[in-house]
Amino acid sequence: MTTVLTNFDTWKQFLSERVEQAKKMGLNEDTISNLAFEIGSFLDERVDPKNDEQRILKEIWDVGNEEERKTIARLMVKLVN
Fold first, then answer.
1. At what angle do helices 52-63 and 8-24 cross, to 10 degrees?
2. Can you give the pTM of this predicted structure?
3. pLDDT for the residue numbered 1
């Protein structure tokens, strides 16, 4: 996972592949966004940003409330679709 997190484009590709897998499993957009929120929360609490893009996302995540963080998660899913 560390290698995936080092480069932002690699991270987006990894996330895109996971979103596609979730869709193939029959998960709907809301469920996928909720999972993205949970992953975002995990990364925020346990993983140091590895590049400038992740650092900016973390700063935005940290100042947002729960609803805003859910919006960020939905936008990340849209970004990689």
1. 60
2. 0.87
3. 56
